[in-house]
Amino acid sequence: MSRAQQIPRVPLSCPPGFLGRYTVQPGDTFFNISQMFRVRLETLVVNNPHIPNPNLIFPGDILCVPGLIHYPCCVVLRSLVRVPFGTGGVAFVNFAPQGGQSVIISATLPKPETFGNFDIYVGEILIPDIGGFGNQLFPPPQTPPNWSTRIDIPIVAQISPNSRVVIRPSNSTTGVSAPVILDGFINNVSCR
Q1: Where do the domains of the chain lie, and which CATH numbers do they carry?
Q2: % pLDDT > 70, the chain
Q3: Which of 55, 56, 103, 137 has a 20 to 30 Å separation from 30 between CA atoms?
């Protein structure tokens, strides 16, 4: 079979700790993929037994990579308080550009003033036993705006099951935040 006709190799399942999936791109090698995910080459090879020769991988092959949840993953953020019609959001967990993981939050939201003396929205991911990472959401000029941000998780941390993604209004001057208005939980049930 020629390279053009190579059928992508896909694992039936991934071992615990390697639940993330990465699609091999042209020019990838096991070595550069191991560097991208900051995992030993030998560990990457042993966790991908569906690839019999690690020196021979093809674009489209799927590899199990470090991750305690299945990703890429998308989670719907649901309202916790009364919100205007059409308010809602999603969190997309994927690979960060420099390795590791990132969370992209996108939500259709009213002006923050709707919830009181607030002028911005903040999105956070709360990882059990580690803590939270957050970032301000920014709107485009359309109305109602679709606010969004990306949160890159430091390499030393890893998104785990039952991590919570939240959005809350905040006041950029006083630092006071409102209660959470949208949230969603990342787990292996929602991320399949």
Answers
A1: 3-65 (3.10.350.10), 73-186 (2.60.40)
A2: 95
A3: 103
* Residue 3's pLDDT band (cuts 50, 70, 90): low
Across-strand partners of 103? 93, 151
Note the pTM of the prediction, 2 decimals. 0.78
8 Å CB contact between 97 and 120? no
pLDDT one-digit tens code per residue, 89-121: 999 999 888 777 899 999 999 999 999 999 999
Strand order in the sheet with 163-170: 131-137, 120-127, 163-170, 182-186, 73-79, 88-95, 101-108, 146-152
The answer to whether 62 touches 8, Cβ cutoff 8 Å, is yes
